[in-house]
Amino acid sequence: MAKKRLVVLTGAGISAESGISTFRDSGGLWEKYDISEVATPQAWERNQALVMEFYNQRRKQLYEVEPNAGHYALVELEKDYDVRIITQNVDDLHERAGSAHVMHLHGELKKVRSSVDEDLVYTLDGWELKAGDLCEKGSQLRPHIVWFGEPVPMIPAAAELSGTADIYVIAGTSLNVYPAAGLVDFVRPGTPIFLIDPNELYVDHIPGVQVIREKASTGIRKLAETLIDDY
Question: Which of 56, 190, 200, 222 is deepest in the core (most CB within 10 A)?
Answer without folding.
Answer: 56
